[in-house]
Amino acid sequence: MKIAVVGTGYVGLVTGSCFADLGNQVTCVDVDKRKVRDLNKGLVPIFEPGLVDIVRRNKGSRLFFTTDLAKAVQASDLIFIAVNTPPKAQGEADITNVKAVARGIAKSINRYKIIINKSTVPIGMGDIVTQIILEHGPKNVAFDVVSNPEFLREGSAVSDLLHPDRVVIGAAQRSAAEKVAELYKPLQRPILITDLKSAEMIKYASNAFLAAKISFVNEIANLCDKVGADILQVTKGMSYDSRIGNQFLSAGLGFGGSCFPKDVSALVQIGKKSRYAFRMLPKVLEVNQYQRRYFLEKISRAAGALKGKTFAVWGLSFKPNTDDLREAPSLTVIPALLSKGAQVRVYDPASMPKARTLFKRAKFCKDAYEAAQGTDAVLVLTDWNEFKQVDFAKLKSMVKTPVVIDGRNMYDSREMAEKGFAYHGMGRGETAGF
């Protein structure tokens, strides 16, 4: 098929590149001239495992990059809108970019097209895009608008697109939905066709449920600290229940990134506009924010007064295998430590170039060991694989005080004690009585 993908962020670039790899002719469009120029050179602006190889393998043959929206629209049969919908001050999604793209499509449409919302948008956005094209496009050209929400996780986005749990396609006309479904049939995965608004709701409902699951297990973990239970044993026992499963039961510093915080906030605002006040979801966000404060309390209990202390921070991105810092725990923890008069030495395998502008008072180090040199405690904020196989004998010889405060529960508390470290995890029972 001939496809245009408008937007070359995480969703747009992964979507366009993978569809090209499946044999389609794809043109990715972006207003950022520098980004388009770099992509045409094979330079990928985001850290995403496997993406560079796919872009370079297809660039110039099936995958093209341009700033010319009109030309891309006119040459394509399917047009994906995959632009950013950032949160506004109150949490609702800002749909300015989607509207702008819809107007651009309307001015360029020259024959029947299927316009596909890939961006995460409020319920009813399909109707808004339809109205924009009717108002600004030619009167004699037919089109259909489809919702095809993305379920891509940063760090595994390529795999998620090529091996999805399900594909959701919403449309007013089933024929349009079935045409889009043809794109995904080679993947041999379940395809669900719904109406437009149900498809839009599935995206928000899915992310809100997963976020609620994370906040729930973090509350249980905090109670485990108080009563002396171990959250790892608790969640293991829970996960054997087929109704619960083992996904998203990792206690820690809460969720971050570009989806869960934004989408839960947006869903709360959608409820308000629809005269329904969510009772649970605001608490999901509240618990998530509290986890960072709770971690800082652990640091204070373990290290005492923070002024004059030096801490190593392992991991800056909100999760491993990405350089994304949006809503990352590091954005809360590091400034809080610095404001208390502590010094901070940091290391992250991917996100340090982005982080340098955010943490100007922190010392950036070449690896985890250098970050730990002469520190009073090591703080684990992101569970990168390279932190799992640490030479703890070497680490102990480098630190001032052998203390590890693990926000991701990467290590075994008994083994850490045997290696001579004071170990503090999340919900591991070691702070009972506080």
Structure overview:
- The longest helix is centred in the middle third of the chain and has 32 residues.
- The strands form two sheets. Strands 3-2-1-4-5-6-7-8 form an eight-stranded mixed sheet, with helices on both faces.
- The N and C termini lie far apart (61 Å).
- It has 434 residues and is α/β, with parallel strands linked by helices.
- The chain folds into two domains: 193 residues, NAD(P)-binding Rossmann-like Domain (Rossmann fold, 3-Layer(aba) Sandwich), CATH 3.40.50.720; 194 residues, 3-Layer(aba) Sandwich (Rossmann fold).
- 43% of the residues lie in helices and 14% in strands.
Task: Give the key terms.
434 residues, alpha/beta, Rossmann fold, 2 domains, eight-stranded mixed beta sheet, six-stranded parallel beta sheet, 17 helices
Helix/sheet category:
alpha/beta
- Our count of domains comes out at 2
Give the terminus-to-terminus CA distance.
Answer: 61 Å
| Strands, total number | 14
Q: Name the average pLDDT.
A: 95
Radius of gyration, taken over Cα atoms and rounded to an integer in Å = 24 Å
Strand order of the largest sheet: 3-2-1-4-5-6-7-8
This entry's quaternary arrangement is single chain
Main beta sheet strand tally, sense and closure: 8 strands, mixed
Which fold name is given in CATH as the topology of the largest domain?
Rossmann fold
Number of helices: 17
Determine and state the CATH class of the largest domain: Alpha Beta
Strand content: 5-15%
Q: What percentage of residues falls in helices of 4 or more residues?
A: 40-55%
Model regions low in confidence, pLDDT < 50 over at least 5 residues: none
- The CATH superfamily of the largest domain is known as NAD(P)-binding Rossmann-like Domain
What form results from the Cα inertia axes?
A: globular
What's the CATH architecture name of the largest domain? 3-Layer(aba) Sandwich
